[in-house]
Design brief:
InterPro entries: Ig_E-set, ML_dom. The chain has three helices and eight strands; from the N terminus they run αααββββββββ. By secondary structure, it is of the alpha+beta class. 22% of the residues are buried. The structure holds 2-acetamido-2-deoxy-beta-D-glucopyranose (3 copies).
Length: 233
């Protein structure tokens, strides 16, 4: 190759690399503005399962006493809720969303699999103070027993691939938050539990589809709450 051809080749390679880096950067990291994100997520139909199906697990056969991954086996209990209750809960939360013109990105249920009673809703909303994006969770349910310990687990998929999963001790989850600001304090008293909780969606998250599953299991391995969300940035 002549020196000139070599220089041109190098230049072309350099240009291609620069362009690909820029494209990858733009594709992955450049997020649309908040109002566009809101519209993007509005398009997705309300009546979907918020990604629940994508987290469905075929329970592995386990040795006796062996724990399942993230204690997921607790979810096979009988359903003590009637079909009517389930329908009422669906209607209640759908009307709540429609009435307020919210953009739903998730739901909170009494269990993770099978027919679920809806206990709450997750919406996408703009923080008017600083223009950031918030996931706001509403949850209203009755706790039948005092809860003294348990686990909080989460799984996240990014563009349909597993990204992250982790479990925390429920009562240590909010250790670094001042007591007055906590969502709950242990032991959690039986009774009506009604909360609105905001979580900022960090601005550094790359563009793409995020699906999450988060669930709380008590000390008797009974699922108390299971939430799913599905949104795009
Ligand atoms: C939750 O329950 C409380 C009182 O029981 C009620 O005032 C509130 O409107 C409910 N929240 C939602 C989002 O339904
Ligand atoms: C929960 O604990 C309180 C004391 O903290 C007790 O008075 C109450 O009876 C307990 N409730 C249940 C359902 O066990
Ligand atoms: C706790 O709540 C208070 C009042 O709602 C608020 O001013 C403060 O910033 C909160 N602190 C944290 C660490 O969230």
């Amino acid at each position: 190759m002549s020196p000139l051809a070599l220089r041109v080749t190098k230049l072309v390679i350099f240009a291609i690399i620069t362009a690909s880096v820029a494209i990858i950067y733009l594709k992955l990291f450049k997020r649309p503005p908040v109002d566009v994100l809101m519209k993007m997520n509005k398009k997705s139909k309300f009546n979907h399962d918020f990604g629940a199906e994508s987290f469905r697990t075929v329970h592995p056969v386990l040795e006796e006493n062996e724990k399942g991954p993230l204690d997921e086996l607790s979810d096979t209990e009988e359903n003590d809720v009637s079909e009517d209750d389930i329908e009422d809960s669906d209607t209640y939360w759908r009307q709540f969303i429609e009435k307020n013109h919210f953009i739903p990105i998730g739901g909170v249920y009494n269990k993770c699999e099978g027919t679920k009673l809806q206990l709450g809703s997750v919406i996408l909303i703009e923080n008017k103070e600083d223009g950031s994006l918030l996931a706001r969770t509403f949850v209203n349910f009755t706790l039948h027993d005092n809860v003294t310990s348990g686990t909080f687990s989460i799984k996240v998929k990014y563009n349909s691939k597993d990204l992250f999963e982790y479990s925390w001790e429920l009562c240590e989850l909010e250790d670094d938050i001042p007591e007055v600001n906590r969502t709950f304090t242990c032991p959690i008293q039986a009774g009506k539990f009604s909360k609105v909780k905001d979580k900022t969606i960090p601005g550094y998250l790359p563009a793409g589809r995020y699906q999450t599953k988060a669930w709380i299991v008590d000390e008797h391995k009974k699922t108390l709450l299971c939430g799913y969300s599905d949104f795009s940035l």
